[in-house]
Input
Amino acid sequence: MDRNDALHLVGDVVVERADPFDPESRTVELPRPGGPAVPVADEDDPLVPPLGSGLRGWAERFGGVALRCGVPLSPVGLLAAVPTHFFVGRVDDTVVAAPALSDLLGGFALLLLPLMWLAFFTVSALPLVIGLAGTVGVAVYRATLGVPPRPAAVWRLVAYRLRALWLWFAAFGVITQALPLVLTTDRLGPAVAGPLAVGLTLVSTAVLTFTGVLGCVVLIERGNGRRRAAHLTSMMPLGGLIVASLAVTVLPRLAEAAWGGIASTVVSVPTVLLWAMAALVAYCQGRRAEGPVTSKSLYAALSAPELD
Output
């Protein structure tokens, strides 16, 4: 083959893969030696459900993650248990404390109360932040390298993204925790108690479903997390993640009503971890609907240094 034939062959490849209707007349970019590897879809990937597998594929990967990562996630659960017990669901305690603060501090208590609420909203997001970040780090590491990670390895994978994740979760936490303070049966009347409880449960479940995918986007990708999460949620079956979000909303409240605050914490921690696993597998399924993605490519994205 002479030089002209070789050039003609390259030209054919470029023309065939380029877009003839591109107004800017751009050509396709061919792979270069030493460039980033393009992930090749693996139907047996331990994290990513096969393309088109639907809810069945999600359930299979979710069960596999729960079996592999249950024990390695024990330190994450213990760490999340502390803010769960002392802060989650305790926003209304600030209302109880307001009269005492008013007696001690006078009118200054009116300024202090919103700051107390803001602090509770911020700290109460910690269990979800710890649960999701720890689950993503452990599950991706285990699926890629095949061994349980040490806590330091998980920290290195997710540390750079924790601030952004915390800010997002704290902002959405205002919706799920402030609404019950504003919309109460004392203000709206006892007749709306049942519909109000159902409505608040649905809102909390919807917020947790969306923030689960959003959190995975913030941890693994860069860019506009909200728009990216909205796009991915339109490309995946959400039934499993909705059930996990509903469990986080309802089960701890039932446990607290029946057995008290400690029981609520005991129930909250595993349900949050299961919610995080459900969110990660759902996120992977949405990514697979877009194109090839593997556990190794997710691990590479987590391992990439944070850019200023």
Summary: Residues 46-87+118-303 form one domain. The chain is about 75% helix and 0% strand.
